[in-house]
């Protein structure tokens, strides 16, 4: 499977930012990483950091490298997209199999009046990763999505605009992107998204589905089944809540901010895992209450405070509810 690391390095080689020996060294380092999503995420961030530091560049480098990426750099995913019968179908396929490219992204299309928006969301933003590195990676991804109509489907269709949440980069080669993409790029927006004319995105380009499409999608499904499990979102929510309990700042908005996503995205992703923010918060409080009670070192008032409850009566009610739900026998 072609990974994001390999695609970024191939684009850096094509653009002249790395030579072949440097690419081989970085690829060897990536190949030695354990098959663990968290470590691979840090590996990707490390490569972006090295590229930015080596060339004294800022996050605009993400756009520049994406302009140099080839369709062959994305393996089965690239082949599958090239067999889609409409642009909307292509974006949906990318969303469905996005974990083949990155384990912590969400790509989805939303319909509006007369337009369709393609939203790119980084579900997990490691707080230790520099903001410039995160922005470079997200600009890389969204620019690739903006290039997709022409590079993978050969369609003369451009987004109406490309919105990004990061600040404007320093002047540099990335500025050719608006000409190449055929649309304006607006920095400092609320999210990362592409806006298309709805009719253009929904128009079928082929009357018949190519036979290879079925084979490629089955191959993608099998490859997806072999991808290491996505970082456990529920566990990350619980970790954030545990750290926040004493402050009492345990709203879904607070935790979503820690994870670098919107409240709506967090709610939706938890629902997809058949979970809810309320249930996770309740479990975290119950587990911590049991631990504190076992120590015998805290009063109930103190425990109520440490769990983020506004009043001890609320804690007492929660304990009563937990006792009723405890297994018997």
Report on the architecture of this protein.
This protein has 329 residues and is of the alpha+beta class. It folds into two domains: 4-226, H-NOX domain, CATH 3.90.1520; 233-325, Homeodomain-like (Arc Repressor Mutant, subunit A), CATH 1.10.10.60. The chain contains 16 helices and five strands. It has helices at 4-14, 20-31, 37-54, 60-66, 75-82, 87-96, 131-151, 177-181, 198-202, 211-226, 233-244, 252-259, 263-272, 277-295, 300-306, 312-325, and strands at residues 105-112, 115-122, 161-163, 185-186, 192-197. Strands 1-2-5-3-4 form a five-stranded mixed sheet. It is elongated, with a radius of gyration of 23 Å.
List keywords for this structure.
single chain, 329 residues, alpha+beta, Arc Repressor Mutant, subunit A
Short description:
With about 325 residues, the protein is α+β, with helices and mostly antiparallel strands. The chain has helices at about 5-15, 20-30, 35-55, 60-65, 75-80, 85-95, 130-150, 175-180, 200, 210-225, 235-245, 250-260, 265-270, 275-295, 300-305, 310-325, and strands at about 105-110, 115-120, 160-165, 185, 190-195. It folds into 2 domains: about 5-225, H-NOX domain (Alpha-Beta Complex); about 235-325, Homeodomain-like (Arc Repressor Mutant, subunit A, Orthogonal Bundle), CATH 1.10.10.
């Amino acid at each position: 499977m072609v990974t994001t690391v390999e695609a970024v390095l191939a684009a850096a080689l094509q653009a002249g930012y790395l030579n072949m020996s440097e690419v081989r060294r970085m690829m060897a380092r990536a190949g030695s990483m354990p098959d663990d999503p968290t470590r691979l995420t840090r590996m990707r961030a490390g490569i972006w950091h090295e590229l930015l530091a080596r060339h004294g560049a800022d996050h605009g480098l993400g756009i520049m490298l994406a302009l140099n990426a080839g369709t062959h750099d994305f393996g089965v995913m690239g082949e599958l997209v090239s067999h889609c019968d409409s642009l909307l179908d292509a974006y949906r396929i990318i969303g469905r199999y996005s974990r083949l490219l990155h384990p912590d992204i969400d790509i989805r299309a939303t319909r509006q009046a007369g337009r369709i928006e393609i939203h790119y969301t980084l579900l997990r933003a490691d707080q230790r990763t520099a903001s410039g590195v995160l922005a470079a990676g997200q600009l890389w991804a969204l620019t690739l999505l903006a290039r997709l109509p022409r590079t993978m489907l050969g369609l003369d269709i451009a987004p109406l605009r490309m919105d990004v949440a990061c600040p404007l980069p320093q002047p540099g080669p990335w500025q050719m992107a608006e000409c190449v993409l055929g649309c304006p790029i607006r920095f400092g927006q609320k999210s990362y998204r592409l806006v298309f004319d709805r009719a253009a995105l929904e128009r079928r380009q082929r009357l018949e589905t190519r036979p290879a499409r079925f084979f490629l999608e089955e191959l993608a499904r099998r490859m997806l089944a072999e991808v290491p499990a996505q970082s456990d979102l529920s566990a990350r929510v619980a970790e954030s809540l545990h750290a926040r309990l004493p402050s009492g700042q345990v709203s879904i908005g607070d935790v979503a901010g820690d994870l670098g996503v919107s409240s709506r995205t967090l709610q939706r992703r938890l629902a997809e895992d058949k979970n809810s923010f309320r249930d996770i918060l309740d479990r975290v409080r119950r587990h911590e209450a049991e631990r504190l009670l076992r120590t015998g070192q805290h009063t109930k008032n103190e425990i109520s405070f440490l769990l983020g409850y506004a009043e001890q009566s609320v804690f007492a009610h929660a304990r009563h509810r937990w006792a009723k739900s405890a297994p018997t026998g």
